[in-house]
Design brief:
Length: 321
């Protein structure tokens, strides 16, 4: 075999390999017209290499942002260095459908792309090579893991029955609010409430009905609070609400509105109708309160006073009237 024929064979094999590799390969000239378009690109775009040759890349794929791509490419031509895009920054360069069997839930193919300068015999960059990698499996798995971690974080902060914050997370929020008050001295109030005679409900109707009452009061709390307020289930039938930027007077208005709505409501479970009430204590943070724990004790003392003096009422700290 002659040297020339051997070289032609090697070139043929090289072109076959580049055409069939499982990576997208596109070569552009300085005007961004397509010179080479391999089998991966053909299979995913539905365009034949002979159809795209000499065509402007932006006319073929209008999803490519022209200004951004031009800046990216010009830096490669000028500096003679590779450049990259990753799916976390830009999900794709070419919007291809995803056909990955493992990640069928993906709407499109996630891609990493490498921009490679191709030098002419004179040492100048005459063409740009794009290598397009399908990273859909990696992207979807990473997104699934992130979503699972976020859901786990929410579960770790949330009371399962009420979907309010659990005690541990709510305590953390109370500490953060106390520290914020220490810096800014803004108004902030704490509301503690407890379902009256809850044990009697459980003893009379069972814990399933008791749970329904707890879900009911939780729904009313969520209905009345603002987005900036923080509410949690503090104990079995005890709840805590942190009202940021709220004076004692306004917190009392909030507490009374909630208490009255509870007293007027009826909880129905199968053929059982239940009426119940709550006792409430309210404390506004002020200079004599030296810790978030002391703040909680003040609200709890006001709550205890409501229970001592007849229940179904709201008491304030310091004692009013």
């Amino acid at each position: 075999m002659t040297l020339e024929k051997s070289q032609l064979n090697e070139l043929h094999w090289l072109m076959e390999m580049l055409h069939n590799i499982d990576v997208g390969l596109v070569v552009l000239d300085k005007e961004f017209t397509v010179q080479i378009f391999n089998g991966f690109m053909e299979n995913h775009s539905g365009l034949l290499p002979r159809e795209v040759k000499g065509q402007l890349i932006f006319d073929l794929f209008d999803e490519i942002p022209r200004d951004w791509f031009t800046r990216k490419a010009e830096s490669v031509f000028l500096l003679k260095n590779k450049a990259f895009t990753i799916w976390e920054q830009r999900p794709y360069l070419f919007k291809f459908d995803s056909y990955r069997p493992v990640t069928g839930s993906a709407d499109f193919m996630y891609q990493n792309t490498t921009f490679i300068p191709l030098l002419s015999s004179t040492g100048e960059v005459s063409h740009l090579c794009l290598l397009v990698y399908d990273v859909t499996d990696t992207a979807v798995h990473k997104q699934s893991l992130k979503k699972a971690n976020e859901e786990l974080a929410i579960l770790s902060q949330t009371d399962g029955l009420t979907q309010l914050f659990n005690r541990a997370h709510w305590d953390h929020c109370l500490l953060a609010e106390y520290k914020r008050w220490s810096r800014s001295q803004h108004s902030s109030s704490l509301v503690m409430l407890d379902i009256d005679h809850f044990k009697k409900i459980n003893d009379s109707y069972g814990h399933t009905v008791g749970d329904e009452v707890i879900r009911h009061i939780s729904g009313l709390i969520k209905h009345h609070v603002r987005e900036t307020d923080i509410c949690g289930r503090y104990g079995g039938e005890e709840f805590a609400i942190l009202l940021s930027d709220t004076s004692l007077k306004n917190a009392y208005v909030f507490a009374e509105r909630l208490r009255q709505e509870v007293a007027q409501a009826t909880v129905t479970y199968n053929d059982i109708d239940i009426n119940y009430t709550v006792s409430i204590g309210v404390a506004e943070i002020e200079a004599s309160i030296k810790s978030h724990g002391a703040w909680l004790e003040c609200a709890d003392a006001a709550l205890y006073r409501s229970k001592e003096t007849g229940r179904n009422k709201t008491s304030l700290h310091p004692k009013q009237g």
